[in-house]
Design brief:
mainly alpha; Serine Threonine Protein Phosphatase 5, Tetratricopeptide repeat; two-stranded antiparallel ribbon; two-stranded antiparallel sheet; 4 strands; elongated; binds zinc ion
Length: 208
């Protein structure tokens, strides 16, 4: 009797373990299928981004490339070229230099897009240099907002927001809308201190 129970326990456990194994295999298979589907969707998205870029829809392509980049863990080498080229065409030169350099580092001179990548990289570097020169020039510009202005002996300046009328007229869909000027305390002028804050963008509005 005990023997029989023992045998059936063993048989049940063998059956159970076989069942579990096949369940596990099924789960494994589903997981693999899921990965393949995911990969396929990414390739489809990448191809459509490349197509958009080739059709001249660079902004739309950029959006799609970014979606692809967000969803993948490792970036296919060709994508570094296509994204770098597209980045140049939307004027993102730093981004372009960055990605095209990646392609050249990975593929050297023997890649399918190596020659094109070097051409685009050269163009992007030229543009980036121009951009940096403009930035440097801008940084060295001397602007009035960086100085305190002496308003003269009266110490007052006609309010530059309402031009001294104390009223601001806003045109909207229904016609004109009148509001009290929120800067000059219904006086139509600003003190010199207020004026200097205003030109620095630091004068706070009155809430009324
Ligand atoms: Zn005013």
């Amino acid at each position: 009797m005990i023997n029989r129970i023992f045998v059936s326990v063993i048989l049940i456990s063998i059956a159970l373990s076989a069942y579990c194994q096949s369940e596990q295999e099924k789960i494994q298979q589903l997981e693999t299928q899921r990965q393949i589907d995911k990969q396929r969707k990414i390739v489809v998205k990448m191809d459509s981004a490349i197509r958009l870029s080739e059709e001249g829809q660079y902004e739309a392509a950029d959006e799609k490339f970014k979606v692809v980049l967000k969803t993948i863990r490792s970036v296919p080498t060709d994508l570094t070229y296509h994204f770098g080229r597209n980045s140049f065409l939307i004027g993102k030169y730093k981004q372009s230099v960055d990605w095209l350099n990646k392609y050249i580092q990975l593929k050297g001179t023997s890649g399918q897009f190596s020659e094109a990548a070097m051409d685009w990289l050269h163009k992007a570097e030229v543009e980036l240099l121009k951009e940096r020169e403009v930035e440097a020039k801008r940084a060295s510009e001397v602007l009035s907002k960086d100085f305190n202005i002496d308003c003269g002996p009266t110490g007052k300046v006609v309010c530059t927001i309402c031009r001294g009328t104390t009223v601001i007229v806003k045109k909207n869909y229904f016609g004109e809308n009148y509001a009290t000027c929120p800067y000059c305390h219904r006086l139509g002028y600003l003190t010199c201190e207020e004026y200097n804050l205003l030109i620095k963008g630091q004068l706070s509005r009155e809430s009324n």
